[in-house]
Design a protein that fits this description.
By secondary structure, the protein is mainly alpha-helical. About 70% of the residues lie in helices and about 0% in strands. The protein has helices at about 1-10, 15-25, 25-30, 40-45, 50-60, 65-75, 75-80, 80-90, 95-105, 110-115, 120-135. Helix 4 (about 40-45) packs parallel to helix 6 (about 65-75).
Length: about 140
């Protein structure tokens, strides 16, 4: 079953992949989010049936393009979820401007962990350290 979905997607044209991304089921979305074409992966994010759990996984993926992560960070519906925001902050591919605006919403424990995380950029680490020190009063 799964192999047939992957084979079907591989044989599809660009237009059909975008349609499937907008209307497909969870399995099709999981395959198409990794599509090298940004339009297809953007269509997956805009799928009305995508769940919060799926979006958490997408926000944590390191193979997703920056444009997709930026659109997730700027979307009000997804920015309400702490888990999604936290995954975006930890993802090294998330644009720095988006991460810096997210940091103020993170819990102290997560800020401390982020300030020690070598995977994120230097600017993000420094800002997380500043915020955590300001909150603890140091």
């Amino acid at each position: 079953e799964r192999v047939s979905v992957i084979n079907r997607v591989m044989k599809m044209g660009m237009k059909d992949r975008v349609k499937l991304a907008m209307k497909g089921d969870r399995e099709a979305r999981n395959i198409l989010i990794r599509d090298p074409n940004r339009i297809v992966s953007q269509a997956v994010v805009q799928n009305p049936r995508i769940t919060e759990q799926e979006m958490e996984k997408i926000a944590a993926m390191r193979s997703i393009s920056e444009d997709i992560l930026r659109s997730i960070a700027n979307d009000r519906q997804w920015a309400r979820s702490y888990a999604i925001v936290h995954n975006l902050a930890r993802n090294p591919r998330t644009p720095i401007a988006n991460v810096l605006s997210i940091l103020s919403r993170l819990h102290l424990r997560d800020l401390n962990a982020l300030s020690k995380n070598k995977n994120v950029s230097d600017a993000v680490r420094r800002q997380a350290l500043r915020l955590s020190q300001a909150r603890t009063g140091k």
